[in-house]
Amino acid sequence: MTGLMVLLACSNESVQAGDWLSFHTGGEGVFVPANLGVGDPAEHPTIIGDGDGLATYDGTPTGNEFRLDGELVGDGWDRHFGAAQSRTAGIARGDLVFYPYRTAANPDGSGQKIHIMETRAGEVWFKYTGVFTLDPNDGEAGTLISRSGFRIVSGTGLFEDARGWVFVRTETSLADVFPDSDGNLNAPFRYDFDGFIKLADD
């Protein structure tokens, strides 16, 4: 784990492979397109976008907060690639609408249903399930918040054969959502990852 010792400057004690490490990162990104809900939008007013239910983030989410056990990994940089697939047309409960989702095929063309987080020390690979919650009464024009459990399934470099679990939250203000020149909805968001990871032994 010499790469870890180079990238991770721990203050009083060294981090060893096999230890459970706290995992945090955060930053900003954009869902493009931001499609939520599956079905015909003309029949289901809860559907956002074209009805295929695919919300993609292809390298737009980036941040500089990546830490293991509170210490920056490299300069803390990370970038994310993936897509979330809605599973219903949207579940209305009062003023709220819920959109359950799961990991979809990554837009990198590999066909793998994983979320890829790039870092200075390698990639972290996740699978997840979660739910978007649309609240039209929250904030200036409403909010769209996702909450999901990300399971670490492996990775590359330092994170090869890593395991762990991370809670992930994203938040979008509906006032910031806009269509691009291709007619796709763009939904900017803030993301936060908090959980634990165990690195593989050499």
Tally of DSSP β-strands: 13
Distance between the termini: 7 Å
- The DSSP helix count reads 1
Shape: elongated
The profile of the biggest β sheet is: 13 strands, antiparallel
Task: Tell me the strand percentage band.
Answer: over 45%
**Which series of helices and strands comes N to C?**
HEEEEEEEEEEEEE
Mean pLDDT: 92
Structural class: mainly beta
Radius of gyration: 18 Å
How helical, in percent, are the residues? under 10%
Given as residue ranges, the uncertain stretches (5+ residues, pLDDT < 50) are 9-14
Question: Could you please describe the fold and organization of this structure?
Answer:
The chain has 202 residues and is an all-beta fold. The chain is built from one helix and 13 strands. It has one helix at 2-7, and strands spanning 20-31, 54-63, 67-68, 71-72, 78-86, 91-93, 96-103, 115-119, 122-135, 143-155, 163-173, 178-179, 185-198. Strands 1, 2, 3, 4, 5, 6, 7, 8, 9, 10, 11, 12 and 13 form a 13-stranded antiparallel β-sheet that branches.
